[in-house]
Write a structure and sequence with these properties.
The protein is α+β, with helices and mostly antiparallel strands and about 280 residues long. It is built from 9 helices and 10 strands. The strands form 2 sheets. Strands 1, 2, 3, 4, 5 and 6 form a 6-stranded mixed sheet that branches. Strand 3, helix 1 and strand 4 (about 90-95) form a beta-alpha-beta unit. Helix 1 (about 70-85) packs parallel to helix 2 (about 105-120), helix 1 (about 70-85) packs antiparallel against helix 3 and helix 2 packs antiparallel against helix 3.
Length: about 280
């Protein structure tokens, strides 16, 4: 029996500008994306058929059946392998879910991208069309194929520019355990043709990057807060913590992040929030 493991890290939108809307309804974005060392774990093994099991703190919330992005990724990968004339067997996928569902951390997309990477290893198939398969699965999946980098995402997610020599950040991630619908957040937007980001700084220090980020936005933050006031509570608590340099919502929410001066300040803040708000999900990254 062959087994392959893969890590699906949280995707953080350090800034997210909504710059327009296409005629087909898709929104145009300009976003700076990085990945945390917090995320989900996938274990894939050879099996007679294809199956998905879920465990972990948020395993019960994983959608079953064909709507699940991980299963869809496996099915697309199987069809692509067959198209290339490579015989593959079934696969059993175990998803250990540590990221909250519908949280603005790209969990489903990261899981699907991790499944594509792992299946390529498991079946010994270097699929040239893996990026095409990722695009079929969703706008956020392609960027999650290479979570070892920072990226500027534009368009609907298909325009990716790798950002070199970006600093590591001391992140604290917090979610009030309130799921937020992405469609509902976009529906609350009053303006969709906002200014794009200026060019990110080249090889910035941590402080230089944070100073640049402070002039950027997440255009979904205000509409998300109107739907879920708990997001505003999280942001207020993060901004009040000693050593917090910047706090902002990620993606369409409800997860928020804060960048701290150092790991010690971040860890102290994590302890404070866990004690004061035990119902919140808190993770150091």
């Amino acid at each position: 029996m062959t087994k392959v493991e893969a890590f699906a890290p949280a995707k953080i939108n350090l800034a997210l500008h909504v710059t327009g809307r296409r005629s087909d309804g898709y929104h145009l974005l300009d976003s700076l994306v990085c990945f945390a060392n917090v995320g989900d774990h996938l274990t894939l093994t050879d099996a007679p058929g294809m199956s998905l099991g879920a465990s972990g703190p948020f395993g019960a919330s994983v959608p079953p059946g064909p709507s699940n992005l991980v299963l869809r990724a496996a099915e697309l990968m199987e069809a692509e392998a067959e198209r290339l004339g490579v015989a593959v067997g079934g696969v059993s996928i175990q998803l250990e879910k540590h990221l909250p569902i519908s949280s603005g951390l790209g969990g489903g997309s990261a899981d699907a991208a991790a499944a594509l990477r792992a299946l390529s290893d498991l079946w010994g198939v270097a699929v040239p069309g893996v990026h095409r398969l990722a695009k079929e699965l969703g706008a956020d999946v392609p960027v999650c194929l290479d979570p070892g980098a920072s990226w500027r995402m534009r368009g609907i997610g298909e325009e990716l520019t790798r950002l070199e020599r970006m600093p590591q950040l001391n992140l604290l991630l917090v979610n009030p355990r309130v799921p937020v619908s992405t469609a509902a957040v976009f529906g609350r937007m009053e303006q969709r043709d906002n200014a794009p980001m200026p060019e990110p700084p080249e090889a910035p220090s941590r402080r230089e990057l944070v100073e640049w980020l402070a002039w950027q936005r997440n255009d979904l933050e205000a509409p998300a807060c109107s739907l879920a006031p708990e997001i505003g509570e999280v942001l207020g608590e993060l901004r009040a913590q000693e050593g917090a340099m910047l706090a902002r919502m990620s993606g369409s929410g409800a997860s928020c992040f804060a960048i701290f001066e150092d790991n010690e300040a971040r860890d102290r803040a994590a302890g404070v929030l866990r004690e004061d708000w035990p119902e919140w999900w808190v993770a150091e990254g």
